[in-house]
Amino acid sequence: MTTPVRGVRLGVDVGQVRVGVALSDPDGVLATPLVTLARDLKTGIEAVPADISELARLVVLHEVVTVVVGLPVTLAGAHGPAATQAKAYARRLAAAIAPVPVDLVDERMSTVVASRRLAERGVRGRRQRAVVDQAAAVEILQSWLDRQRRRTG
Question: Do residues 59 and 67 lie in contact, with contact meaning Cβ atoms separated by under 8 Å?
Answer without folding.
Answer: yes
